[in-house]
Amino acid sequence: MNDQNEKVSPKHVFLHLFSISMLYVTTINILTLIFQFINQSIKDPLVYSIYSSINSAAYYSHNLVRSALASIIIVFPLFIWGSWYLNKIYLRIPQVRQMKTRKWLIYLTLFIVSLVIVGDFIRIVWGFLGGEITLRFILKAFAVFITSGCIFGYYLWDVRREAPSNRSKYFAWLASAVVLTLIVIGFFLTGSPKQERLMRFDYQRVSALQEVQYQIISYWQSKERLPQELQELEDPISGFMVPQDPQTGNLYEYTIKGENEFELCAEFNLPSDEKLDIAEPRMLSGSNFSKWSHPAGRFCFERTIDQELYPPFKKL
Question: Any idea where the domains of the chain sit in the sequence?
Answer without folding.
Answer: 2-191, 195-304
